[in-house]
TrEMBL record:
GO cellular component entries: nucleus; site of double-strand break
Composition skew (Basic and acidic residues), residue ranges: 71-91
This protein's name: Gad-1
Biased composition, class Low complexity, residue ranges: 35-48
Residue segments, region Disordered: 1-50, 65-137, 154-176, 665-702
Organism expressing this protein natively: Pristionchus mayeri
Length: 702
């Protein structure tokens, strides 16, 4: 009876509140209508007949909304309480305790509803302090939120952990995932599958992906550059193009620009070649003057180019390191169409050793933001400059970073560390804020090639490098180390082969490795990687088309041809004779006879004949002059008596004097010549002048 009384009283109070709310709403509407009609009448009565804006009473509207929300909450709570009471009564439990609990819950619900409405009204009013409670739409009746997705306070978490609930285990698993223990880092290395690409027979000295992941380029010590297009390759993994851009120079470095439109090639020559997407050379850098001492006055490199890298932000700028002791910054905007050459550099950076002399930079790199330039030299030093207009003083210098030439330097993704590899078999990690000692160092890593690579994983949690194989007993390896401790995490062994070049493409999540046996290994994971080499290994090989041969039809009955048909009235011409058949066969044999190339003719030893010129002298002019002189002076050279050859023209000169004799004919005596010509007498040998050993023996006795 007490429970029914309480229910009746609650229902009466709720109905009374609803009636009051309805009255307020109707009053507000009436007031709004009256205000609107008055405004309309005033507008119609005005001279210009303009309409005014409608006026709303926000206070009355907010009050009506809060009253409706309260009534709905109370009705939902009342309905829920009655349903729970009926269930308890059917189960045989005490309904008084449940009613008391329900009344308490109803009071709390009413308090919550009133608090929300008050906070919503306060949010509209200009107050200084913001309340955390917001006016939210009412939840549907019977809705139970999922507590597992609700963020609990620290006090509630502590209570649950103390109680030993399931929440404790979930938090521990979540903490392990945050610490990196949930997923092993080695599972992030895409090495579950391997594809083998054959470059050549000599070591692969350079390797590069383009930034879009559509192509991979390899260069080796065989002077060749192979371009592999993933969209055109099939299961055979053959290169799309094979080039020899630098003639007989070893390829040292390959690098794509930011948009993949330009490929820069650095080799043993002093000039850098630039290729387009088709593999055609469209530009090259100018060669410097090797006789100028100051490198600032030379327009280009004067020695072999060791490394080339593009600016990560500016697609037209690239950096090169050369054995002439300089780093040079180039721009493709300086390309000249007439000369098809980049005529000058933009900046020159001189590298010097501890004695102030030239140091040969072996490798170079940009920072990820393009604000820092780093290089490693042959004296083992690491030098860095801020990218700007002046490169006089270094911003970071480690003079004795390594005891041998540096093979590779890489800036960390965060831009605060530098990873270096050198021929002293060490791998070191340096901090840009401290150049005294390395942060981490790993030794006993065999390094026999000056292009041995190292680098960071795309997320920076690992570093990788390769080791060399100096003999068949020592295996080359591809090592993956923890970037925080340099502890080995994963390795791939190559028996008797050195690991030289390594490229990890972040977008494709594939790793390309260049080895000393002339092969390129591409590693990928079917779950973690996508596109790239995965498009090629599943594509079947293209069937080679058979060579199309034009075959002449064989005539089985040659006597039916038109040439063997009877002609004229003469019966002899109508007959098919043996002579006519042989004539046809000779003609057919002459047509099918191959045209052999005429062998080179031997040089002429005698006079020129048959349109061929005898080889004498360096040019044709010298030969013609020689032949003309021989023909004119042949008779003169044949005469041994010079006097007789001159007197042969004496009679003609006397009859028609043309030169000196014509001027002196009147006062000169008549010349008288000796009529008889004598041959030159043979000179007798002087016995006194002969050597002693040639004298006869009889003279010694006398």
């Amino acid at each position: 009876s007490s429970m029914s009384d309480e229910q009746d009283s609650a229902r009466g109070s709720a109905m009374q509140k609803e009636e009051e709310a309805d009255q307020k709403t109707t009053q507000a509407k009436d007031g709004h209508v009256d205000g609107g009609s008055a405004a309309a009448a005033a507008g119609e009565g005005s001279a210009n007949g303009r309409k005014r804006a409608r006026v709303f009473d926000l206070g009355s509207m907010l009050a009506a909304t809060t009253a409706t929300a309260k009534s709905r909450v109370e009705q939902a709570e009342e309905k829920k309480r009655l349903e729970e009471a009926e269930k308890k009564a059917a189960a045989g439990e005490d309904p008084q305790e449940d009613a008391a609990k329900g009344a308490g819950q109803g009071g709390r619900a009413i308090a919550v509803a009133s608090r929300t409405t008050d906070s919503a009204y306060n949010s509209l009013a200009p107050t200084d302090d913001d309340d955390d409670d917001d006016f939210l739409p009412m939840l549907p009746p019977g809705f139970k939120p999922d507590e597992s997705v609700i963020v609990k306070d620290d006090d509630e978490k502590a209570k649950l952990k103390a109680a030993g609930g399931e929440e404790d285990e979930d938090d521990e698993e979540f903490d392990d995932y945050n610490n990196g223990d949930g997923i092993p880092t080695t599972a992030l290395i895409p090495t579950s599958c391997e594809a083998k690409i054959l470059h050549g027979n000599k070591p692969v000295s350079s390797l590069a992906f383009d930034h879009q992941g559509a192509r991979i380029v390899s260069g080796g010590q065989d002077y060749a550059v192979n371009i592999y297009d993933f969209q055109k390759m099939d299961h055979g993994l053959r290169p799309d193009r094979q080039l020899t851009p630098c003639e007989s120079h070893v390829i040292h470095s390959l690098s794509f620009n930011a948009n993949g439109e330009c490929l820069a090639i650095g080799a043993g020559s002093a000039q850098i070649r630039l290729l387009d997407r088709k593999g055609s050379q469209w530009a090259e850098t100018v060669r410097g003057d090797q006789y100028l001492v100051d490198l600032n006055f030379t327009k280009g490199h004067t020695a072999a180019v060791n490394c080339i890298v593009w600016n990560p932000l500016v697609k037209t700028e690239f950096l090169s390191a050369s054995d002439d002791g300089s780093l040079r910054i180039w721009s493709t905007d300086d390309f000249k169409v007439i000369t098809k050459c980049i005529n000058t550099h933009q900046r020159v950076i001189k590298t010097k050793n501890a004695n102030g002399k030239r140091a040969q930079p072996q490798t170079c790199a940009y920072s990820p933001d393009g604000k820092l330039i780093v290089c490693g030299c042959d004296d083992g030093s690491i030098q860095a400059w801020k990218h700007g207009k002046l490169f006089v003083n270094t911003s970071y210098l480690v003079r004795k970073a390594h005891s041998a030439p540096v093979t590779c330097v890489v800036v960390a993704p965060d831009g605060k560390k530098i990873l270096s590899r050198a021929l002293d078999d060490t791998l070191k990690l340096w901090s840009l804020s401290d150049n005294k000692a390395p942060l981490l160092m790993k030794g006993d890593l065999e390094c026999g090639f000056k292009g041995t690579d190292c680098g960071f994983s795309p997320r920076g949690e690992m570093v990788y490098t390769g080791t060399s194989s100096p003999s068949a007993e020592v295996d080359g390896k591809l090592l993956f180390l923890n970037s925080e401790t340099f502890e080995p995490m994963y390795q791939i062994v190559y028996p008797g082969v050195s690991c030289i070049r390594i490229a990890w493409h972040a977008r494709l999540n594939q790793i390309a490795v260049g080895l000393s046996d002339g092969t390129v290994r591409v590693y990928y994971d079917q779950q973690l990687s996508h596109a790239g080499i995965m498009m090629c290994v599943t594509k079947p090989k293209k069937r080679q088309r058979q060579n199309e041969v034009l075959r002449e039809e064989l005539i089985l009955s040659p006597l039916t041809l038109h040439m063997f048909q009877p002609r004229g009235d003469n019966p002899d011409e109508q007959e098919v004779t043996e002579w006519r058949i042989r004539k046809y066969l000779r003609m057919r044999d002459k047509q099918q006879r191959p045209n052999f190339r005429k062998p080179a003719e031997m040089p002429l030893d005698d006079k020129s004949c048959g349109g061929r010129v005898k080889t004498s002298g360096g040019t044709l002019h010298s030969y013609v002059a020689q032949q003309l002189g021989k023909e004119k002076n042949q008779a003169f050279l044949a005469d041994t008596d010079v006097r007789a050859s001159i007197l042969r023209h004496a009679e003609a000169a006397e009859k028609d004097p043309q030169f000196i004799n014509k001027a002196y004919m009147k006062n000169q005596p008549k010349p008288i010549f000796q009529e008889k010509s004598t041959a030159p007498e043979e000179e007798e040998s002087d016995e006194e002048l002969e050597p002693v050993y040639k004298m006869p023996r009889g003279q010694f006795s006398s």
